[in-house]
Amino acid sequence: MIKKIFIIFGAILLFLLVGLSIYIFTSAPQLPPEADEIISQVLNSELPEVIKGETGYAESGGVKIWYESIKPDDSAKAVVLLIMGIANDALAWPDYFIQPLVDSGFQVVRYDHRGTGMSDWIDNWHRANPYTLDDMARDGIAIMDAIGAQKIHIIGVSLGGMIAQHIAIYNPERVSTLTSIMSSGYIEDPELPGISIDVIRKLLVTNVKYGLFKSERNTIKLHIACRLLLMGDSIYSLDIQHIAEHVLYNLRTRKGYNPRVSPQHIAATSASGSRYEKLPEINLPTLIIHGKSDPLIPFVHGEKLASLIPDADTLWIEGMGHDIPQIYVDTILLKIISDFHSPGLQ
Fold this sequence. Notes:
Blueprint: H1 2-27, H2 35-43, E1 54-60, E2 63-70, E3 79-83, H3 95-103, E4 107-111, H4 133-147, E5 152-157, H5 159-170, E6 175-181, H6 197-211, H7 216-231, H8 240-253, H9 261-272, E7 286-291, H10 299-308, E8 313-317, H11 326-340
């Protein structure tokens, strides 16, 4: 009898495992057919140098924040601070976004969020007492102080947009312009659709598929697959070689990727609540950009954010998901740089 029970239990477990495996491999996005060959080439080639500017650390409330400052050949017109999204480090900013800004005469500064890249990873973090967006905004201010920049243009993406809003609200004297891309003034707004549960589920499944067995190849595939998910229904190709090189550079020359940082950044966002009451106090040239095909943060969040900031300019992009693909960068940067020269600037 015991033997039969074990056989039945084993059969059920095997059935569940097979079903789970089928679900995982069918739910996660299929990589482009050329991906494996490109990844193999990158794995077997010398990596390009990804860091091209001056690097350093800023001290922010006992936390070391790594940054890179890229200057134009001539004297800079102004400083642009780039703030990336959740669980992403500085290298998530693509070269095709940074270089045109530098070529236009701006000093561009990007940095690793606390918990990512070369910045301090918060090992003693506890959900009951998380750091907040206020702390993460202070990280940006600390970098400004470290490089001696009194006033800057801020560009923030997703979570970075929320941090950028926070800096503009509480430190307006340090901000020349605010650009918030595919972000929200209150991601938990009960009157708006929230972050897509379906996309989160698929991201989790993708993490299981490519993250269960750790390897450089699988980590690269994970990043490509996540980018595909965040594209939503948009149709454009990814630069797989660029993604592979940056992921591998992170793995081989930096600290890699922190598996515990996503819950920390989510908790920071939740603990910080709504900015709706404070957003109307922003008296700065502001640009709100959102893709109409964003599968993660619904487009209506961008619309509401723009409606709350006086005289906010907007750029709504048909066909763009939760991503900054190269095909839209010219349009985005043309608008951003135009707003840098807004008549409202002092």
